[in-house]
Amino acid sequence: MHIAVLGGDGIGPEVTAQAVKALRAVAANGPQFEMTEAKIGDAAFDAEGDPLPERTAQLAERADAILFGAAGTFDSDLRPPEQRGGHALLRLRKRMDLFANFRPVFAIPELAGASTLRRDVLKNVDLVVLRELTGDIYFGQPRGIHVEGGERVGINTMRYTESEIRRVAHAGFQAARARKKKLCSVDKANVLETMVLWREVVTEVGREYPDVELSHLYVDAAAMLLIRKPADFDVIVTGNIFGDILSDAAAMLTGSLGMLPSASINAEGKGLYEPVHGSAPDIAGRDIANPLASILSAAMMLRQSLGQPEGAARIERAVRRVLAEGYRTADIMEDGAHLLGTEAMGDAVAKEI
Amino acid sequence: MHIAVLGGDGIGPEVTAQAVKALRAVAANGPQFEMTEAKIGDAAFDAEGDPLPERTAQLAERADAILFGAAGTFDSDLRPPEQRGGHALLRLRKRMDLFANFRPVFAIPELAGASTLRRDVLKNVDLVVLRELTGDIYFGQPRGIHVEGGERVGINTMRYTESEIRRVAHAGFQAARARKKKLCSVDKANVLETMVLWREVVTEVGREYPDVELSHLYVDAAAMLLIRKPADFDVIVTGNIFGDILSDAAAMLTGSLGMLPSASINAEGKGLYEPVHGSAPDIAGRDIANPLASILSAAMMLRQSLGQPEGAARIERAVRRVLAEGYRTADIMEDGAHLLGTEAMGDAVAKEI
Ligand SMILES: CC(C)[C@H](C(=O)O)[C@@H](O)C(=O)O
Ligand SMILES: CC(C)[C@H](C(=O)O)[C@@H](O)C(=O)O
């Protein structure tokens, strides 16, 4: 099994290195992995003039799965899009057609104190946001800024085809089927025609999954309910831009952003696995970032793209044990716990594996 | 002073009737108001075949301010847009150019128990979401569902002109100037050109307000921070669709959606004042809805459109006293409090005025 390791920018390489450690520990008495590193993001732009060098893209395409860190830093935000680190990720998503972005959000009892939500509200939170990742206003044409009647005008196009909606709807129903059998589709069908089509197609696809309970929410109501009753959700399926917002809001509920993995998968089951947190350039290079989201992303990769559920479970158990033993990185530190740096946390997990 | 009273659908008329009571109580020893009622929403569609009858629209335009309840119920969601109650509101916003939607969100210490957030996080939450209300993907052309290559395709257009952004930016800086002097502009400039223009224009306008501290957040980060550190915000200015989502999320933080007023104002200072909650048809007609958001909307109206800050303060003090005395409607009920119905709560506030 061949894994492309793209650490990227900011804390990306540091946390990804700990996930690599975990994979090596799994490989010590289990499946063998070939891991190849390559540059992406600002790091790649600085070195080679392109945030997504062709060599990196081809490595990613050839590999069985991609372990990704983070791309982009504040520095590149002012550069033209094609030179920004963050855009490397958008290009890779589109190029590999990674349309299904799964973001599980779960409350970790040991870390309940880190949440801004009340403990009783947090209890039983265990949901997945499935965000469509290759369509919507992110990629729709026409787009741009032009001058009209003497002033600047900006436009972007929200756009979904029936087949784009259909495939992510199937992914949503299948995910729900494997969980609590509840799918909530989020749209804005009361205002946007694109979302009327979204609701119609999701409803049509739903007829093939009579065992899954389908509900619909407008995006504003969904944002409310996520805060009000997060434990009511199972799988949420939504478009790219609404998913961007809702998945980050959902990630915040548990207070442990540094713990949350994600997967972006295409029709062949190939996927890019990355922590939900970003490149956090302000804390990069200081050995204080939490590597657990990256380590848990490696576990997701083993289960979803590499057919290694046992390896995945070994990593997840190890993370739970390390937390139960009271080890914490700075972001989730509590009174009485043992503070570890990035490397030491990676070592602790590897040892438990 | 002439007020158009548009109760609308669901609990709209019930709660609006209590706000009218409060205004009468203010008028008993203060300014005189002429109030004229008219139909809007599903109620208007059922009676006259149009959710925004021309007579209602003209009354709204002629009046000095509009006291609005709620429009639309689930029933009409399946009808074509122009027949849906909710669309009456979109049409009225556009027709009267009510571009600046202010939604204050404040923690009420007496009601802290109703929030799903931890009490310490809630403390000092006092922010305003300023949502642009007449542009963006809500109104952009082209839009619709068409067939392309044998399948249905939905499109909508996000669109902002420089002048649309400029006027709402000014409204934001002015609001911040009157408060804690912090304006946070929320966009998605890392992906959308429309939002690049948004950021540029807000930054330009900011040069005229050197006393206001301007910051920028991407919408996904803003959704996170609202949950993580809500007390850090003062005024948030954003576009129509992001504002729809963020203002509802923000409203949920305090746990007292039934308490939150809003104002939608145009360039002449005319405004439509309405509770943030919707028509809630499931509880309509049962005398259990919380009228305080509508009553506080009437106070906002006195202050912002009718030049009656003293009348506004009288209403707001009365609401605080009624809460301090332990009176509650069902939605904010706690152990040991006195439960009141909609009418009785309206009476209690009027008596305190
Ligand atoms: C960096 C940015 C382009 C990206 C997005 O909006 O998709 C990020 O917010 C994410 O969610 O992965
Ligand atoms: C009813 C709907 C069209 C409306 C909107 O999206 O603007 C509502 O959600 C609001 O926020 O007032």
UniProtKB/TrEMBL annotation, chains A, B:
EC number, as in UniProt: 1.1.1.85
Keyword annotations: Amino-acid biosynthesis, Branched-chain amino acid biosynthesis, Cytoplasm, Leucine biosynthesis, Magnesium, Manganese, Metal-binding, NAD, Oxidoreductase
Top-level taxon of origin: Bacteria
Cofactor note: Binds 1 Mg(2+) or Mn(2+) ion per subunit.
Residues given in the record as substrate binding sites: R93, R103, R131, D220
Residue intervals of the Isopropylmalate dehydrogenase-like domain: 2-349
Residue positions binding NAD(+): G278, S279, A280, P281, D282, I283, A284, G285, R286, D287, I288, A289, N290
Primary localization: cytoplasm
Oligomer and partners: Homodimer.
Role noted for this protein: Catalyzes the oxidation of 3-carboxy-2-hydroxy-4-methylpentanoate (3-isopropylmalate) to 3-carboxy-4-methyl-2-oxopentanoate. The product decarboxylates to 4-methyl-2 oxopentanoate.
PANTHER family: 3-ISOPROPYLMALATE DEHYDROGENASE (PTHR42979)
Protein name (Swiss-Prot/TrEMBL): 3-isopropylmalate dehydrogenase
